[in-house]
What does this fold into?
Amino acid sequence: MSTQDRLIESTQELLWERGYVGTSPKAIQQRAGAGQGSMYHHFTGKPDLAAAALQRSAEQMQAAAGELLDGPGNAHDRIAAYLLRQRDVLRGCRIGRMTQDPDVMADPGLRAPVQETFAWLRGRLAAVVAEGSPPASSRRGSTPRRPPPRSPRSSRAATCWPAPPTTPTPSTRPSGAHSRCCAPSEEPTVHAMQYEITLPADYDMRIVHRRVATRGGLTDDLPGLGLKAYLVRERDDPGTAGAGGGSPVNQYAPVYLWRTAEGMADFLTGPGFRGLCADFGRPAVRHWLGAGFRPGPAVDGTPRFATRARHALPEEADPDEAVAAAVDGLPGAPGLHSAAIALDPYRWELLHLALWRDVPPAAADGTRYRVLHLSRPELDRLPVHAKA
It folds into this structure.
């Protein structure tokens, strides 16, 4: 393979892994095993090389898709072969994830191969679909199928989330801590949610910091969201060191407290989460039923740290009593921004979450994070549980 091809192939891989900002000329040279002189002999600079790499990726994607869409079988078989092809789902599409890279989309030269590829793919798929569709004459006189009526506001959420249980009557409504998790309609249930994206040991975490700095504000007005804390762990970061030392991994791990299940469903099926999946692959999303929330003395400030602990309930433990004890034990220490308790009834596990204005006290339990940004559009509407 020539030096020029090695440089292009290395840039393809780095753009896929790190995005445009995270792909430095030095990293390209090291990956390609080429010197600075060789790189600038073939290309005028990073933009020129990135454009060549994106063009190569576009050509390869079109060739691979064309082979399947022009392959044997009827239209259904060929489209199925394309959609079900083997791929690296954790890394996403080489071209698709570029649509979420603001630096690529802002540059006409870098954007062109991406736009051309999707235009070609749309046209090719439309042609195959048309090939497999019956002629218009055979459809005359047929009765169109009408979908059942659906609520415009909740149609997307209804496909993902069951309807909430009906409110028990006073004679059958449970007492104690279960009423905290299965709240009556006048006090909405909180839903806690978190996903963890563990990144390579040599990953430049400044990429995550820039991402949050430029996009964190997009959730500041999200309907149904109580709060979202943009959490990170970084290797050997002394600011998040606990009893066991600093973090062993680089990790991006946002945590959410949703005021409504509909808001959570809309987010998970909407463009914001799709963008994250395009950049990092689709993460597993953990979900807990909120049992208690309490603002702390520093709730009006900006939290800089967070702690998260998960405790399995012993087999013999009464969940009602365990949840009640955890809620009653929510901390109220100086410097606490807010704290929450939530229950995972699949694993029978309690989540303890706390946000802190300053470095958490030594007694604070669990994994420690830095908070890069806090969105709190409906924090004041989260149900607050007073200490029993």
Observations:
- Residues 150-187 have pLDDT under 50 and may be disordered.
- The longest helix spans residues 108-132.
- Strands lie at 191-195, 197-199, 225-233, 250-252, 255-258, 285-295, 305-312, 336-344, 349-356, 367-375.
- DSSP finds 14 helices and ten strands in the chain.
